[in-house]
Write a structure and sequence with these properties.
InterPro entries: LRR_dom_sf. The protein is of the alpha/beta class. Helices cover 24% and strands 17% of the residues. The chain is built from 2 helices and 4 strands, in the order αββαββ.
């Protein structure tokens, strides 16, 4: 992810990544990815609409990746 951030800083026009139809399980395995999505300038098309279909804690299920409490994610 760091390399992708570095690449997009030097690339013009910015690249766009499409991830629709990917299943997102919100637990410790995706924690750093979700943190990165919330901080990066990389253009991930529609990521704010992605929802957790499963995960731990179960309180994250159904939430968008913007709403997820990644500080409490565990496996």
């Amino acid at each position: 992810m760091r390399k992708l951030d570095e690449f997009t800083r030097i690339k013009s026009p910015k690249i766009k990544i499409r991830m629709q139809q990917n299943i997102i399980v919100c637990d410790c395995r995706s924690k750093h990815f979700i943190e990165w999505l919330n901080k990066t300038d990389v253009d991930i098309e529609g990521w704010r609409d992605f929802k957790c279909i499963d995960g731990y804690p179960s309180s994250n299920i159904g939430k968008t990746l913007k709403e997820v409490k990644y500080g409490i994610m565990c496996c």
